[in-house]
Design a protein that fits this description.
By secondary structure, the chain is mainly α. It is about 50% helix and about 5% strand. A two-stranded antiparallel ribbon has the order 1-2. The chain is elongated.
């Protein structure tokens, strides 16, 4: 079995149910089986390791205020010096982000923005992928 929704073994289904129960205090309504199975697959369906990993992830999200990034708008200068953007979707429906690093003006970008803004921009881009 692949470990994806619709293709789970009996053992994997039990692990998913157990995982869902263990993390019920931190999951949000939009955290569906697809989301939870990512964590289980990452740890070979070891529920304890998956729980530890997702709990650390949630702490990190709070620490870096990741959930606030959806409302963040990058400064105009980043659009000028940092080419790239959303390209579309792959065959599985996942978003594709394209960054042509050969065209990036690194000196211009770094001279006009501090590193915190660049980190926020990259975090925002990654957040949109989830």
């Amino acid at each position: 079995m692949s470990g994806h929704v619709g293709d789970l073994s009996v053992k994997q289904e039990r692990s998913l149910a157990q995982f869902r129960e263990r993390i019920s205090d931190i999951v949000k309504p939009h955290h569906d089986d697809h989301y939870m199975l990512r964590w289980l697959r990452a740890r070979n369906f070891d529920v304890s390791k998956s729980e530890k990993m997702i709990r650390r992830h949630m702490i990190c999200r709070k620490e870096y205020k990741i959930d606030e990034l959806l409302d963040w708008t990058p400064p105009e200068v980043l659009h000028r010096y940092y080419p790239g953007g959303w390209f579309g979707e792959d065959l599985e429906g996942s978003p594709v982000y394209y960054e042509p690093f050969g065209n990036v003006d690194f000196k211009g970008k770094h001279s006009l923005q501090n590193h915190a803004v660049l980190l926020t921009m990259k975090s925002s881009t990654c957040m949109c992928l989830w």
